[in-house]
Amino acid sequence: QVQLVESGGGLVQPGETLxxxxxxxxxxxxxxxxxxxxxxxxxxxxxxAAMRWRGGGIYYADSVKGRFAISRxxxxxxxxxxxxxxxxxxxxxxxxxxxRPITSSVRIPSSYPYWGQGxxxxxxx
Length: 125
Hints:
Blueprint: E1 2-7, E2 10-12, E3 18-26, E4 33-39, E5 46-52, E6 58-60, E7 68-73, E8 78-83, E9 92-99, E10 114-115, E11 119-123
């Protein structure tokens, strides 16, 4: 079992920056991938970014390439999502997730059995 807890969300204006954090605990040796997803009201859960927990690949949704960056601190069992130049369409609840996805499935929510509780990001003027 792996437990995940997100933090760092909030209300910002367009063009501003947030950094989300996700703290992992439990049997982290059982995972090889971590990811961020988001879900806006009335919409399906959407892939944002993913990485191999121990290195080997980083993946982004086209909508966030060049603006967002995923990273990790293995010693702290923490992953981050740096979000620059935020736009109103980025407004959503952001979730971190962990599992053992094959490379072709890193963008699919069902590839990840472990999920955090979510943190709200609102971008509005």
